[in-house]
Design goal:
alpha/beta, Helicase, Ruva Protein, domain 3, 5-stranded parallel sheet, 11 strands, 43% helix
Length: 407
């Protein structure tokens, strides 16, 4: 047999073998077949990336409690008895704050009183003086008397940007888009040398100081409550200084001139040298919390202001606009613009705060007179002749107080 025939025979036998079917074994009824279990793969949900709000971090438990209280705080209209009790309680608190601040500040009692009036009234204060009169140090001491408050300081310079103050939206591969809040998110903000930054940067403070809100990107954020700005400016230098606009200055409740201390007090100032001591060495005690400040500001709103005193306040402000109607023909030559309605509102509110500091639930004419100069001195805008003659707005206010009668 040839090799070719042998190969053909083998291939045919293989094909026949492939066609054979396997014989199925009979399945008995009592035998139960097990179903083949198919394990399904677990579908894992993608991990959700939490966006971190990196505005104010490293908070103490007390700070978090105060924030919760602020969100839960609802203004309450007190009864007459509650109003009297609240006024007495907060008068004591303010006196304790004064005593604590005086441990480091010597001979500036009027300045301390004025700053605390602004705090009680819920306004902002602008401190003006030559360098070295403890404006910044005063702010830091007041912050030391507050328990759980958030304190930030901004050193204004010409190269500052608005985003350096308010904050900015940042993109990260892991976090996505999130907001990095700026230093303006604080209970007490020290705006040091505010007039050293251009108007573009100064305008970043306008919304915050008026509405207690800040817009970052397309979203508006509420500022912590209470929100109190203490700004300083140096009137000496001309280079690298940008005068504050009228809109910016009008946001301040008070403008306070800080003068030199007396010779007797300066001996004690030398001993209390703040450059040689740390803040902790003054032994400042915690007196008040942000939540109590909110209650105090709410109490001020319900202190009584009679209709006669309201008319008195309106006449004072009107005399800055139309001085010739009140026998102030000489002063009228130097005034270009008088006070806005915000001046009337602020005089009334500051007078109520003064009444609280004096332990009263009603305002007197003396309370009105004591705050008029601080409220109006930066709201009376002089014309060119008044600036050339170096007319002082305080002198104009003194004449207005003499000519406008108490009803």
């Amino acid at each position: 047999m040839t090799t070719r025939k042998r190969k053909q025979k083998r291939s045919t036998t293989k094909k026949k073998g492939r066609k054979r079917k396997a014989v199925k074994k009979p399945v008995h009824k009592h035998v139960v077949r097990r179903k083949k279990v198919v394990r399904r793969k677990r579908i894992t949900k993608p991990k959700t990336i939490t966006k971190h709000d990196t505005g104010i971090s490293n908070k103490d438990p007390e700070e978090k409690k105060n924030e919760i209280r602020q969100h839960q705080y609802v203004e309450h209209k007190p009864t007459e008895d509650e109003l009297l009790l609240n006024v007495r309680k907060y008068k004591t608190k303010i006196e304790r704050i004064k005593n604590e601040v005086k441990k480091g500040i010597i001979g500036q009692d009027n300045v301390i009183d004025s700053v605390l009036k602004c705090l009680v009234a819920g306004g902002h204060v602008l401190l003006e003086s030559v360098p070295g009169l403890a404006k910044t140090f005063l702010t830091m001491l007041i912050n030391e008397t507050m328990e759980g408050s958030i304190f930030n300081r901004i050193q204004f310079t010409p190269d500052l940007l608005p985003a350096d103050i308010t904050g900015v939206t940042i993109y990260d591969k892991v976090k996505g888009f999130y907001v990095m809040k700026g230093p303006i998110f604080a209970n007490l903000l020290l705006a040091d040398e505010l007039n050293r930054t251009p108007p573009k940067v100064q305008s970043a403070m306008l919304q915050a100081m008026q509405e207690n809100q800040v817009t970052i990107g397309r979203k508006t954020y509420d500022l912590p409550k209470p929100f109190f700005v203490m700004a300083t400016q140096n009137p000496l230098e001309q280079r690298g200084v940008y005068p504050l606009s009228a809109a910016q200055v009008d946001r301040f409740l008070f403008k306070i001139y800080v003068d030199y201390p007396d010779e007797d007090n300066e001996f004690y100032v030398m001993d209390q040298n703040s450059n040689m001591k740390a803040i902790s060495e003054y032994g400042i005690e915690k007196v008040i919390t942000p939540y109590e400040i909110l209650e105090m500001q709410n109490t001020v709103k319900y202190i009584h202001l009679s209709s006669e005193l309201k008319e008195y306040i309106v006449n004072i402000v009107d005399a800055t606009r139309h001085p010739e109607n009140y026998g102030l023909a000489e002063e009228a030559k130097y005034i270009q613009f008088g006070g806005s309605p915000r001046a009337s509102i602020n005089i009334g509110l500051s007078a109520k705060a003064t009444a609280l500091l004096n332990g009263r639930v009603f305002v007197t004419p003396e309370d009105v007179r004591s705050v008029t100069k601080e409220v109006l001195r930066h709201r009376i805008i002089l014309n060119y002749e008044g600036k050339a003659r170096e007319i002082n707005t305080d002198d104009i206010i003194d004449e207005i107080m003499k000519k406008v009668p108490v009803l």
